[in-house]
Specification:
heterodimer, A: about 500 residues, alpha+beta, Creatine Kinase, Chain A, domain 2, 6-stranded antiparallel β-sheet, 4-stranded mixed β-sheet, 14 helices, about 40% helix, B: about 70 residues, mainly alpha, about 55% helix
Chain lengths: ~500, ~70
C-alpha cells in the first residue's frame, strides 16, 4: 500500500522595493528579519537553520554531483524556523517559505495560505522599517508568481513522500504525463512568451508561467536547463525507507482550489505509481515540446503525440488519469491521501475537467489562468488595447501582487476552501499530523533552549554541555498524538528530553 | 493496448458533483449579470492598476531562482 503522502509546498516569492534602493537580497532579508523581530518570543532573535545534513547534490538516479556543482547552501543568508513548523528564508535573492509537512491537500492549502499571510504581514513590518530610515514613501512589495517577463524564472516547488523502493525510472516515466498536462487546471496564466526568438504576437496568452523554462525531461538542475522531473535525492528523513520527490514544474497559484487540485491530484498519481497501479497508457513521445505546446494552446484542443503513436489532447490525458484514479479508489482506497479529501479531490478534478471541456469561462472561479484571462481580455476590450501590450503585462504581474490594496487575484471572484480563522491559526500553530508538530510546539514553548532546527532534527541547549540533538527521521512521528501531552507537561526542554528518552 | 475511449464524462459521482456545482460557478446566471460583474471588476482594476504600466513592467526584474 502506498505510504501516506506527506507533502509540502516551497514558494519563492518575487520582491521589489519602490521608492528606495531595489536590492532583492537585502530586501528579502529585511522582509524576513522584520517579521521575525515583530513576532519572536525569543530573547535573542531567531532560531538558526542547521545545515549539517543538507545534500542537494545527491541524484535519485544513484550518483552525487558534489564536486561538479557550486554549493547551493548560502549559510550566511537569513534563515528562520517559525512556530508553525515552516521555514522562512532567503534563497537565490528571493524570500521563500517552505510550509511545514502535512498529510492532506487541504492542510497544504491551509499552510500555503498561512505563508501568504505571513508574507503580507512581513511587507507591512518591512515597509514600516524602511520608512523609518528613508525619505519619501518607500515600500516593499512581494509577488507570488514565477516569471518576470525578462527570461528569469523562480519556482513554486512541491514535495511528496514515497517509499524508497519505488523504482525511480517508473516515477519519471509515469508522472511526466501529469506534470505536462495538469497545467490546464493549475496553470497561473501568462501574457506573452519567454522562448528566445518567439515574438509575443505568436503567443499572446499561455496557460503556464513556467512551461517556457523547461528544457529537459529529467535531471538534477533547478536554475537552468530545468527538467520536468527533478532528480534531487535529499529525503530529509530515513533514506532507507523513504524518497522525497521534489517537484519544480508547477506554477504558484493564487486560487485555493487550484493549489488544492495541484497537490491533491499529484499525490493520488504518485500513490498509483507507488502501487504500480497507473500503467503507461498516457506516456508522451516528447515531453519537453509537449509542455510548451500545451501551455501555448488556451483552446485546449491541440493534441500531442503519445509514446505509442496515438495523439491526445491534454484534456484527454487528464481524463485518462482521472479514470485510473477512480479505479484506484475502488481497488486500493485513498487512505494514503485521506479518504474524504481524496474523494473530494476526485470530484473536483472531474468538475474542473468537465468545465474546461465545455467552456473554460465556467471555471473562472477556480482556475488561475482562466480568471486572469478574464481580466486581461475584459480590460483589452474596454480600453481597445492590443494583445500582448504592456498594460496587459501589467495586469498579469499585478494579478500576483500580494498587497491587499493592489492585488488583482483577490478581486477576481476566486472560490475559497479554507476558513480564514484556520489560516490565522496556521500562521503560528503547526499541523498536528506530522513531525512539524514537534518542531513548532518546541519552538513556541522552549524558544530560548533551541539552538538550531531543520527538517529532520532539532538541537537543544539544556544549560550544560553537550548540546542535545534530537533526530526526527520519521515524518509521521512527533505528531500531536505522540507528543502533545509530553510537551504540555514539560515546562523546560530538559524535562521533555528526559521524558522522550525514557 | 489499453482501451482508449474518451467520451465526454458522464459523472460516476453524480451527487457530489451536483453539490460542487452549487457552490462553484453560478452556471445558471444570465449573461447580463455576468457582464455586469465583469464591468464592476474592470472598474475596480482601473482604480488599482499601476498608474504607469510601461515603467512598472520595464522595472519588474527578478533574479533567476529555482
Amino acid at each position: 500500500m502506498a505510504l501516506p503522502k506527506v507533502c509540502g509546498i516551497e514558494t519563492e516569492y518575487a520582491i521589489a522595493v519602490r521608492g528606495a534602493e531595489n536590492n532583492p537580497v537585502s530586501a528579502s532579508s529585511l522582509l524576513i528579519n522584520a517579521y521575525v523581530a515583530a513576532t519572536t518570543n525569543r530573547r535573542d532573535g531567531r532560531v538558526g537553520w542547521d545545515f549539517d545534513d543538507e545534500q542537494p547534490a545527491n541524484d535519485a538516479r544513484g550518483f552525487s554531483m558534489e564536486d561538479a556543482m557550486a554549493p547551493e547552501i548560502e549559510t550566511s543568508l537569513v534563515n528562520a524556523v517559525l512556530t508553525n513548523g515552516a521555514r522562512y528564508y532567503v534563497d537565490h535573492a528571493h524570500p521563500e517559505i517552505s510550509t511545514p509537512e502535512v498529510t492532506t491537500a487541504l492542510e497544504a492549502v491551509c499552510f500555503d495560505r498561512a505563508a501568504e499571510e505571513i508574507v503580507r504581514r512581513s511587507m507591512v513590518f518591512a515597509t514600516a522599517k524602511l520608512a523609518a530610515s528613508s525619505a519619501g514613501q518607500p515600500e516593499v512589495v512581494v509577488y507570488k508568481n514565477n516569471s518576470d517577463g525578462k527570461g528569469n524564472s523562480y519556482g513554486c516547488h512541491e514535495n511528496y513522500l514515497l517509499a524508497r523502493q519505488t523504482p525511480f525510472g517508473r516515477i519519471v516515466a509515469q508522472v511526466t504525463p501529469h506534470f505536462v498536462t495538469r497545467q490546464i487546471f493549475c496553470g497561473a496564466g501568462k501574457v506573452g512568451c519567454e522562448l528566445p526568438g518567439v515574438p509575443d504576437d505568436d503567443v499572446p496568452y499561455q496557460l503556464s508561467q513556467r512551461a517556457d523554462f523547461f528544457e529537459e525531461e529529467v535531471g538534477l538542475e533547478t536554475t537552468l536547463k530545468r527538467p520536468i522531473v527533478n532528480t534531487r535525492d535529499e529525503p530529509h528523513c530515513d533514506a532507507q525507507k523513504y524518497r522525497r520527490l521534489h517537484v519544480i514544474v508547477g506554477d504558484a497559484n493564487m486560487s485555493e482550489v487550484a493549489t488544492y487540485l495541484k497537490i491533491g491530484t499529484t499525490a493520488i498519481v504518485l500513490a498509483m505509481i507507488e502501487d504500480d497501479a497507473l500503467g503507461e497508457d498516457w506516456l508522451l513521445a516528447n515531453p519537453v515540446p509537449a509542455i510548451r505546446q500545451v501551455s501555448h494552446d488556451p483552446t485546449l484542443r491541440r493534441t500531442v503525440v503519445l509514446r505509442d503513436g496515438r495523439r491526445a489532447s491534454a484534456l484527454e490525458v487528464q481524463f485518462g488519469l482521472l479514470e485510473r484514479a477512480t479505479k484506484y479508489e475502488q481497488s486500493h482506497g485513498l487512505g494514503c491521501v485521506d479518504d474524504a479529501v481524496g474523494a473530494d479531490v476526485l470530484t473536483r478534478w472531474e468538475h474542473v475537467l468537465g468545465g474546461l471541456e465545455r467552456d473554460p469561462a465556467s471555471v473562472a472561479d477556480t482556475v488561475d489562468w482562466v480568471a486572469k484571462r478574464r481580466l486581461v481580455d475584459g480590460y483589452a476590450a474596454r480600453h481597445a488595447v492590443a494583445p500582448g501590450s504592456v498594460r496587459l503585462k501589467a495586469i498579469d504581474l499585478q494579478y500576483h501582487d500580494m498587497r491587499p490594496a493592489r492585488g488583482l487575484a483577490s478581486r477576481a471572484g476566486l472560490a475559497t476552501l479554507v476558513d480564514p480563522a484556520a489560516v490565522e491559526r496556521a500562521m503560528t500553530e503547526p499541523p498536528a499530523t506530522t513531525r512539524a508538530y514537534f518542531r513548532g510546539r518546541c519552538l513556541a514553548k522552549y524558544p530560548d533552549e533551541i539552538v538550531a532546527a531543520n527538517w529532520d532534527s532539532m538541537v537543544f541547549d539544556v544549560g550544560r554541555e553537550p548540546l542535545r540533538r534530537v533526530p526526527m527521521m520519521e515524518p509521521l512521528r512527533g505528531t500531536a498524538d505522540h507528543v502533545a501531552r509530553l510537551i504540555d507537561e514539560s515546562d523546560r526542554a530538559v524535562e521533555l528530553l528526559e521524558r522522550l528518552g525514557s | 493496448m489499453a482501451e482508449r475511449t474518451h467520451k465526454p464524462k458522464t459523472s460516476t459521482r453524480s451527487t457530489e458533483t451536483e453539490e460542487v456545482v452549487d457552490t462553484a460557478t453560478p452556471v445558471s446566471e444570465s449573461g447580463e449579470k455576468l457582464k455586469a460583474e465583469l464591468d464592476d471588476l474592470l472598474d475596480e482594476i482601473d482604480e488599482v492598476l499601476e498608474t504607469n504600466a510601461e515603467d512598472f513592467v520595464k522595472s519588474y526584474v527578478q533574479k533567476g531562482g529555482q
